[in-house]
Amino acid sequence: MSTLLQINASLAGANGQSSRLAQRFVADWQAQHPDGRVITRDLASDPVPHLTAERFQAFLSQPEARTDEQRTHAEYSDALIEEIKNADTIVFAVPMYNFSVPSTLRAYFDHIARAGVTFRYTANGPEGLLKGKKAYVFITRGGFYADAADTQTPYLKQFLGFIGITDVSFVFAEGLGLGEESREKSLNQAHNAIGELLPRAA
């Protein structure tokens, strides 16, 4: 059974524009995978704690040497990793906040980037271990940044590639804060792009 993991990073949860674009894609995916499973993780309603020294030390400690608190921290991270490991398709809904990705998404990434678990260091450099997955990223922005100060796309490509997810497609909706005409035009273009993401059935 195919599994899709949808990660919403908008403060508005399912009502955010990025979440709505992602959900449109998920609906298309479900139409092609009627027996597939969809798991939704909303980082607004269920935020991942930001990384602390205590949590990081829990990740580094050997299982048998962990305190009860460290064990709890490590098991929480393990559950997030198991969730993404079991997904064939991963969907990210990512608005731009202050020229970057939401801090809740960075916190999520901090918990799934684990040496020896989702990546490892080799003589040829780091190797991502979450291979064979397809990711789709839906990015929404109030202004236009694609040709200038786009800090999100390179960061997301680098991080996902670092853990082994190299097959990544992006859909952008920009200029959403520049008036109704700009907003509607951009959202329509994004929806058209979403319609072309999945191969058509023969």
From TrEMBL:
Q: What is its EC number?
A: 1.6.5.-, 1.7.1.17
Q: What Gene3D superfamilies does the database record attribute to this sequence? A: 3.40.50.360
Q: Which reaction does it catalyse?
A: N,N-dimethyl-1,4-phenylenediamine + anthranilate + 2 NAD(+) = 2-(4-dimethylaminophenyl)diazenylbenzoate + 2 NADH + 2 H(+); 2 a quinone + NADH + H(+) = 2 a 1,4-benzosemiquinone + NAD(+)
This protein's cofactor list reads: FMN
Pfam families attached to this UniProt entry: Flavodoxin_2
Q: Which domain of life is it from?
A: Bacteria
Residue sites binding FMN per the record: 10, 96-99, 140-143
What does the record note about the cofactor?
A: Binds 1 FMN per subunit.
NAD listed as a keyword: yes
Keywords in alphabetical order:
Flavoprotein, FMN, NAD, Oxidoreductase
Quote the SUPFAM superfamilies the UniProt record gives. Answer: Flavoproteins
In this chain the Flavodoxin-like fold domain maps to 3-196
Q: Which InterPro entries match?
A: Flavodoxin_fold, Flavoprotein-like_sf, FMN-dep_NADH:Q_OxRdtase_AzoR1, NADH:quinone_OxRdtase_FMN_depd
Q: How does it assemble?
A: Homodimer.
Role, per record = Also exhibits azoreductase activity. Catalyzes the reductive cleavage of the azo bond in aromatic azo compounds to the corresponding amines.
Report the family membership: Belongs to the azoreductase type 1 family.
UniProt-recorded name of the protein: FMN dependent NADH:quinone oxidoreductase
Which organism is this entry from? Steroidobacter flavus
